[in-house]
Design goal:
By secondary structure, the chain is an alpha+beta fold. It contains seven helices and seven strands. Among the domains are: 62 residues, no CATH class; 86 residues, TolA/TonB C-terminal domain (2-Layer Sandwich), CATH 3.30.2420.10.
Length: 277
């Protein structure tokens, strides 16, 4: 006896038995499950992409922002120790080689009033004595000759005139390196660092070359607190010192420095460190 063989017959084979299977309907019914699976996979992929698109966009935007922020700058302040100010002593006038003859003098001083009970008696010279000798603090005989020399010119200039309007003297326009009370930025050092960090823009040329370092500026705080005479003591090139000078010149007024209770101009030194993040 021949063994039984199970022949798997699908529903499509039973329906199209004895019919034309090449017409198209038979093939469509055979691959229907395959099309259904593909459509399901496409739908799942579309919904996954739809819900993950915002997350991917946020990730890309955060990466872009981090790249843009990497071109910022970090500003740090360093203390600069200035050399001590040298005191200039005026040169003494040269003494004459030979001692000149002295004229006779007569003691002629203003009487002083003292607190104790003991009277102090001075010999008051007569008019005849004053005509024969010069007036002085003590009485001396001298050698009988009198010589009057030309006075030395003063080292300063008068600050007033006959009309009562004074001209500024050299001391009034002197720029101090160190004063009793140094100038101060309104709000202190923290406000100054915040101002510089907000206003300084890192030059593109310096960013492209990766330039980092310290720019040192010098400027004068006037008696009214304004910023004058900004100078570059140390630069890095690529537009860094120009940018630092621009921001310092636009600074608001400082509290001016003072010496002996009087406002005076003071020269300050400001180091600014530029660093790429």
């Amino acid at each position: 006896m021949e063994p039984n063989t199970a022949i798997a017959i699908s529903l499509e084979d039973m329906i199209f038995e004895g019919r034309n299977k090449a017409y198209g309907a038979y093939v469509l019914r055979k691959i229907y499950h395959q099309h259904l699976s593909q459509a399901l996979l496409y739908a799942i992929g579309f919904f996954v992409l739809l819900f993950s698109a915002p997350v991917i966009a946020n990730l890309l935007a955060g990466k872009k922002n981090s790249i843009q922020q990497s071109t910022g700058c970090t500003i740090t302040m360093t203390r600069v120790v200035l050399p001590p100010v040298k005191e200039v002593t005026p040169e003494k006038a040269s003494e004459p080689a030979a001692a000149k003859a002295t004229a006779p003098t007569v003691k002629n001083t203003t009487p002083k009033v003292v607190d104790n009970q003991t009277p102090v008696v001075d010999d008051i010279p007569t008019q005849e004595d004053l005509q024969k000798a010069n007036s002085g603090l003590t009485t001396s005989q001298g050698d009988g000759e009198t010589e009057i020399g030309n006075p030395l010119p003063g080292e300063g200039t008068g600050g007033g005139n006959s009309t009562g309007s004074g001209e500024p003297t050299a001391a009034a326009t002197q720029i101090f390196i160190s004063a009793e009370h140094m100038p101060e930025f309104e709000g202190g050092m923290k406000k100054l660092m915040a101002y510089l960090g907000k206003n300084i823009r890192y030059p593109k040329a310096a960013q492209a070359q990766g330039v980092e370092g310290t720019v040192v500026l010098s400027f004068v705080v006037s008696v009214t607190g304004e910023i004058n005479d900004v100078q570059v003591l140390k630069g890095l090139g690529y537009g860094t010192e120009e940018e630092a000078v621009r921001v310092v010149e636009k600074m608001p007024r400082w509290k001016p420095g003072s010496q002996n209770g009087r406002a005076v101009p003071v020269r300050m030194t400001l180091p600014i460190r530029l660093k790429l993040k």
